[in-house]
Structures are given as C-alpha cells and as structure tokens.
Write a structure and sequence with these properties.
The chain is 38% helix and 22% strand. It is globular, with a radius of gyration of 25 Å.
Length: 477
C-alpha cells in the first residue's frame, strides 16, 4: 500500500501538498537500472556527459519559473530560491571546468622494482546516493549529484520531506533530457526512504543533522560503503580588539540571519572584545531592529518564515532556557504567527554563558547571542567549547593577528573579516571537524575527485616471477 505524507506550507501553516513515500523495493529496482545504465554513461566519455549536462541546463531554464515557484512555497522566501535555481547552471559550469582540467594518468616506472610500469586509473562509483535537508532544498539536493554525474556516476537523490515541492518540476526537467534515463533520479520520501537508499548505492553523501548523520554512517558502515557527512554547526565569530567595528556589525548581522538563520554556516554566537563590546551591542541592536519580515508580500523585506515547524519549538526552548538563566533579550525574542506561518525577527541577546543551550547547541534561527571576552585565549577557548567544528569567523584589522586566532579555531572553514564565506566560496577545500561531519571536502577540486575510486594498473615488463623465486630454502632468517 502506498504511504503518503502531508506537507506543510511554511507561510500559511497549512498542509497543502502531498508526497508518496518511495519504498525500498522501488529504490532497489531504480538503482539496479542505474547500475546498468552507468556503464554506457561512463564509456561515452566526459565531453558526451558535459553535452548532456548542457541539455539539462536548458531543461532547467525552461522550468525556471515552476522551480522558483515550488522552491518559494517550500521555503517561504524568494530571493534565495531564485539564486538556488539559477545556481544549478553555474554549478554545472564550475564542475565541468574542474573535470576538463583533469590530466590522463601518467605511466611511471617503479623505483623499488624498476621493471614494473604502473599507472593509477580512476573509476567512478556506479551509483551515488544523496540525502538532503530542508534549508536550501534545491542547492543541497544537487550539490553532490552534479559533480558525481560529470565524473561518470549515476545519482539518486532523496530530498527532505519538509520541502519536497521542487522535486516535481525538477523531475520534469530531467525527463526532457532523454540521455538522463536511469542516470539521475529524485525520489520522494522520509527517513525510511533515505535509509533504504543507503542499502543500494555505492557511496552516500548526506547533508543534515548530527543525529541522522550518525544513523547514516552506521548503516553505510554495515554496507561497507563510504559515507560523506555534512552536518550541523554552532559557528562562532570572534571580534578581536583591533577589529573594524562597523564592518563586523554589518557582516555578522547578515551572516546570522540570512535564510532566517537556517543555514549550517550561520554565525550562531558572537564573542566581542571588552573594548568594543558596548558599541558593538548598541550598533547591532539598531541594525537588527531595521530588518523586516517578507510578510505579507514575499517580494518584500529581508527574511522569511521558519521553514520547519519543529525548528520553531527548538528556538523557543533555547530562548526560554537562556532567559531562565539570566540572558537579556534586546530585540526580537518571540516566535510570531502571521498568516498561519511562524516567524522570528533577528534576536540580539546578551548576558549569555556556556551553561545555556543557546551557546552550545545548534539553534538554526536568526538569533545573535553576544558574549564579551578579555583576551584571545579566552575567546579561542569559548569558540572551541562545542561538539561542532563546521566553520567560524575572526575579525581584525591586523591580518596576522586574525590568522593566528583563525588557526586555533577547531573548525574546517574560517572566514576573516567576513561571515560564513563558505556559503559563497566553492574553490576552497575544507573538512568538517569534530561532530560536524566526515569525509572529503565537497568544495574545491577534491569535491569532484571524491566520486572516484583509484585503480592501480601494474605491468611487469621483464621476465615472469617464477615460483622458484619463492623457494623456502632460500629464505634468509
Ligand atoms: P535531518 O537530519 O533531520 O534530515 C536530513 C535528511 O535525512 C532528510 O532528507 C531526511 O528525510 C533524511 N533522513 C532522516 N532519517 C534518516 C535515516 N534514518 N536514514 C537516512 N536518511 C534519513 O536534517 P534537517 O533537519 O533536514 O536539516 C537540518 C540540519 O542539516 C542542520 O543540522 C544543518 O546544520 C544541517 N546542514 C548541514 C549542512 C552542511 O553542509 N554541513 C548544510 C545544510 C544543512
């Protein structure tokens, strides 16, 4: 029997869409077909695959409006939805350039055994599985699938059941590319579909929470397939005593609240040197108060609703915990209901400490808890006092000073004099530290190379190794 899921609209709070949950049997059939189709996809070569990706770009362009509309309903915001849809073409171009820069493997002579020639070929995984979250639905569903397909793999995507509307127009675009048959599939479903997918793919790329990431890693381990995990964060920003105050205020407000703070690389806590603290707080409160909701008109304001209802409860609980422990809310601080959707204005909080959840657990909302520090050691200790190690920021007009501090933060991507540059930068390779993830960087050229296994081809150019060479009596003990 087909199971269905009702999908909530984040602007109205109403369930106005449904998906059918894809079962394990369907995943098995799809992936078996993909495995068969992959052989030709690979053999036809890179330029063929890139020409098909060009057709996909054109199909996406034909469905641009539908995709943006669906993504806007999924997420309740417009500007970023447009950027996500238009970003598909630029991502394809970027990965095409990386792939074309590849050089054929050189044949070398072994130093240890000079009569052996060898080369290292690279063979893509046949079927790549991608499981994605709800905060950037289009971007994060395709972020791993696009380079994987260019590498010669096929890809099956399981988007979040919180924001699945975009999959319908995307499937239409995929269907218009005949060469994509069994090369790219998007399957609707919940966690059970995601779990089933791990049983039938050759590598899984997961973007989501730490808790689910652990389940994904366990299941992948049982299947002996690699799991690349991009998980949550609690990104710190450190505003050093020699920072440019107005620059820090401007960029940290943006970096904490874009996408209503629903970004893994959002700044979630700000540490400010005592000498700048009062001015920083005054200025950021003023700027935060000027931020507007994109309500009632989605084409107005700066931030959208809270996409996932449960996230609103997490934000509320963290705020209540902080207030009960003495935190002071300067602006925002409420989960507001407008038109049935849930909203939260930028919330600046002071008098915070690390015994509050809001300083240690992922919030995923437009919340700016601000804490003062007296010296670099204290700021670094506080920044590292977390299970996460995704990214962070350091502000200073003295670049050497900023770099010294940046190098001591336990995280994989540090922005200097800006917030969350990892959201804009695709060239810089980075790993997720600590509980924020596992596996190779999805950014930079290695983001493409992740989808290959290495295969050594070794040729003996001299006489065969005879069994006599292993005569036991010649063993030197
Ligand atoms: P989630 O972990 O709840 O869900 C992510 C996906 O996993 C969904 O598609 C879901 O259906 C699927 N899933 C659930 N149970 C599963 C199971 N047992 N096996 C396989 N798949 C399963 O995460 P979310 O709430 O959708 O996303 C928010 C989280 O994602 C935040 O923690 C955020 O920081 C993180 N995130 C990380 C990055 C990054 O690049 N590091 C980017 C965006 C979001």
């Amino acid at each position: 029997m087909t199971r269905t899921l009702d999908i909530r609209n984040p602007r109205t709070g109403e369930n106005d869409y449904q998906i059918e949950i894809t079962d394990a049997e369907t995943i098995q059939t799809l992936t078996a077909n993909m495995r068969a189709a992959q052989k030709e996809w690979l053999v036809k070569g890179l330029e063929y695959r890139l020409s098909v990706m060009e057709k996909f770009k054109q199909a996406v362009a034909r469905h641009r409006k539908e995709l943006i509309d669906a993504e806007s309903i999924d997420t309740g915001r417009l500007y970023i939805s447009v950027a996500e849809v238009d970003g598909i073409a630029s991502a394809i171009d970027r990965w095409a350039a990386v792939a074309r820069a590849e050089v054929a493997p050189a044949t070398k002579l072994s130093k240890a055994l000079p009569f052996i020639e060898f080369r290292t070929e690279r063979e893509p995984y046949a079927v790549v599985g991608a499981i994605s979250p709800w905060n950037f639905p289009v971007t994060l569903s395709l972020i791993d699938a696009l380079p994987a397909m260019i590498a010669g793999a096929t890809a099956i995507i399981k988007p979040s059941e919180v924001t699945p509307r975009f999959a319908e127009p995307l499937r239409k675009a995929i269907a218009e590319v005949a060469e994509f048959k069994d090369i790219l599939h998007i399957v609707d479903g919940d966690g059970s579909t995601g779990a089933a997918l791990i049983d039938h793919v050759d590598i899984v790329c997961f973007t989501g929470s730490v808790a689910t990431g652990q389940l994904v890693a366990e299941r992948a381990a049982k299947n002996f397939i690699p799991a690349i995990l991009e998980l949550g964060g609690k990104d710190p920003a450190i505003v050093l005593k020699d920072a440019n105050l107005s620059r820090a205020v401007t960029s940290l407000l943006r970096s904490s609240i874009v996408n209503t703070g629903q970004a893994c690389q959002s700044i979630e806590r700000i540490y400010v040197h005592r000498s700048l603290y009062d001015d920083f707080l005054t200025q950021i409160i003023k700027k935060a108060r000027a931020v507007e909701l994109n309500y009632p008109d989605i084409g107005s304001g700066h931030i959208g609703p809270i996409i996932f209802e449960k996230q609103a409860s997490i934000i509320r609980a963290q705020l209540d915990d902080a207030i009960a422990k003495g935190a002071v809310i300067h602006t925002g601080g409420e989960i507001e209901t407008h038109g049935g959707g849930l909203w939260c204005r930028p919330t600046v909080i002071s008098n915070v400490s690390h015994d509050m959840d809001i300083m240690t657990k992922e919030t995923f909302g437009p919340i700016l808890p601000i804490m003062l520090f007296d010296d670099d050691e204290e700021a670094i200790r506080l920044a590292n006092d977390t299970i996460y190690g995704l990214s962070g920021s350091v502000y200073s007009d003295n670049i050497d000073h900023a770099n010294r501090v940046a190098m001591q933060i336990d995280a994989g991507g540090i922005s200097i004099n800006e917030g969350s540059l990892t959201g804009f930068m695709h060239e810089a390779e980075k790993n997720s530290f600590k509980m924020s993830g596992m596996g190779e960087s999805r950014m930079g050229p290695i983001g493409y190379h992740r989808f290959f296994r290495k295969k050594a081809i070794m040729t003996n150019t001299a006489d065969a190794f005879p069994i006599e060479a292993f005569d036991e009596k010649n063993a030197k003990i």
